[in-house]
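Quick start: load a record and inspect it. Here is PCDGK protein:
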Amino acid sequence: GALLVSERIDREELCGAVSPCSLSFEILVENPLELYSGVVEIQDINDNDPVFPSNQARLEISESVAPGMRFPLESAQDPDVGINSLQTYQLSANPHFVLDVQTRGDGSKHAELVLEKELDREEQRELHLVLTALDGGSPPRSASVQIHVDVVDANDNAPVFNHSTYKANVRENTPSGTLVARISAYDLDDGPNGDIVYSFSSHTLAKVRELFSLDSATGELKVKGELDYEETKLYEIYLQAKDKGVVPGVAHCKVLVEVVDVNDNAPEVTVTSVYSPVPEDAAPGTVVALLSVTDLDSGDNGLLLVQVSDVNDNAPKSLQDHYDVYVPENNVAGIPILNVSATDPDLGPNSRLSYVLLQGDPAVSRLFSINQENGTLYLLASLDHEDQVKFSMMVQVQDGGSLPLSTNLSVSVFVTDLNDNAPVVLYPRPNSTDVVAPGTPARHMVTKVVAVDPDLGYNAWISYTLLHATDPSLFSVGLHSGEVFTARHLREDETPQHTLVILLKDHGEPVLSSSVTVTISVDEMVKEALIELTDVAPAHDSRKHLTFYLILAVILVSAAFFITLVSVGIFKCYKWRQSKELFNNSRSTLYRTPGPFHHIDAVRGGFTPPNFYHQVYLTTDSRQSDVLCKKPFASSPLGSHQNTMRNGEPGLYHQIVGTASRLPKPAE
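Running the structure step on this input writes:
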């Protein structure tokens, strides 16, 4: 079990500046099976002298330099480590300079020459100094360098760096020529005394100069060699800026370059098989082989990761289960209107999503399509708000697993209204004529323009304006009602026929309009027709008694129809009583409130919906009669756009002239 040295060991050759220097090994004991790790530390001995880059150095120092000014000196190198490495410097005795020894971050030493007493070129043009480097061995080893100081006339402004310390990060294995940092200094002098040249300071190690280059004109520090994080993690680079004066001014700065680790080392796996072949009856837990894994990288780059394979156990998810989209009508075909977004926390194909519109409304599949890859919903055709206001659809989001999982999202597309429809005139009908009698007072409603706009809201708000009239002073039009009134009293000698051109405008943007021509005839025959209408007396209707007897007969014949016929009889009696009450109430006024106005001219114009009817009630009084226009059973299809007439307008009598003139006169 003795561990022997097989050849001469040189610590500097094996480990360089790395301390401690160690060699690792493993010892395997087979019976019983055990594994031991061992480390041999190579201890340093003081077998190397400090070495200066050159045996002499020359400094040019202006006589105007103030005491306290520092001048870096060439550093000596000692490959030994620890106490055997370079420990201090000594300077030969002189009246002007003292030596200041400083320690770097890595523990190495460097010396600076500090001016203690002002120089006088007239007194002494040159000084000779000796710098000695000593290590910490016993006995110590040393090396010396001759320093010649030339005292020159003053260049009174030295360069000044913007920063005394620059910091930079660079990744290891960065290609040569990559910019690391850009240093900058300025000099207030003019001409050559203000021109600055950048260079490495004497403190900078030779190894650093091999890895980095410095542009003397621009101050750009670039990568020159190959950086290795595992070898050195931080570089301290000392730079100087010197002007071109006869006695050049010098400024110094330091650049700290931190090397960032890159995962450039593969894990090394060592497999040691110690139990082969394995018996078939080997117990669980029997050691078969030993594995050792190492990685020279640091941090996460040095971990050995165990990959966990993915299972499609997550369905696609969306931030919202329902989307509302508002699209203006008359859109351009082919535009995207929505991006349905979903995520799947699974990996690989299990997280690859596809989007499909589920089959439902045929109009949806005809008007909409969805991109299967990114969920963008496209509108394939132009929509019309007046045709359909809302479309509902379902989007299925499915992953790409072998047993795919899916999620359904609902989408509602609302078609917003644009002002794309002009007002449409429902009444008066073309080539129709309204009649008014002479002597009609002012503010009497003659007729009414009824129009609708298929648009919605403000776009459907119609205003009416009298654009042209045969006699502008005779008639006026309600701005929002469309009612045509007499503006003044109608004289007997008025023009028999008047033509009005009425402009209808909505309030959309842009404004759309249409026009209608209203013809009004001033005719004396209207009064005569009214007189004939009031002379009509109600005829006795004996059929009501006959119907009553028939109902009784039917009840006696078939008991099966008893309940049905009783209901009919009750209904008839109820309607008769209702009409009688309306008749009694109508004696206080001549006319009743009409239904929706576009049905008023039904007798004359033939525009009568099936759910609308007129009934004429004549009083038993021979000289009094009332006309009642009953409202329809169902609401008008015009909905909210329909305009109705005001109650109790006496000017409607001319609407039933065509019927009243054909009624028989009562017997004397």
